[in-house]
Amino acid sequence: MEKSDTVGLAAFRAQQQARYEDSLKNVGAARERERRRARATTTYASSGTRSSYAASGYGANTTTTTKKKSHAARNGALIGAGAGALTGALVTKKNRGVGALIGGVAGGAAGYGVGKIVEKKKENQ
User: Fold this and answer.
1) Are 89 and 100 in contact (CB under 8 A)?
2) Which residues touch 84 (CB under 8 Å, ≥6 apart)?
3) pLDDT tens, residue by residue, 38-74
4) Range of 5's domain?
5) What H or E segment, with its residue span, contains residue 44?
6) Got the DSSP string for 76-105?
7) How buried is residue 107: exposed, middle or buried, by Cβ count under 10 Å (0-12/13-18/19+)?
8) First CA to last CA across the chain, in angstroms?
9) Residue 42 sits in the same domain as residue 85
10) Contact 111, 77 (CB under 8 A)
11) Does residue 9 lie within any of the structural domains?
12) How many structural domains is the chain composed of?
């Protein structure tokens, strides 16, 4: 028994594959154009501001100031949890795991609180 092409199925699949490959090329080319455009129109100043030059031909310049987000609470919680776990494990004689757990939770909470206070002070400045 010979397998025959069922009403141009092979040609259809080849055409479908060609369309798929073309669409991949188009998407890649569009992404590359967007990357190049973004690189050419955005400059970063050392003061934390971003200048973007419009592609309108008039050379419009818009400057926006971006405020850096403070991670003091997160960092304080992580440092406090590590220090508390270490201290809890060293202080507890019988069950070091439980001591580390309790110390980690307590240290994390204290570190988070201190970090929040630091964030509030930075926000008010």
Assistant:
1) yes
2) 103, 104, 105, 106, 107, 108, 110, 111
3) 777 655 555 555 555 555 455 555 556 677 777 888 9
4) 1-47
5) strand 42-44
6) HHHHHHHHHHHHHHHH-SS-HHHHHHHHHH
7) buried
8) 85
9) no
10) yes
11) yes
12) 2
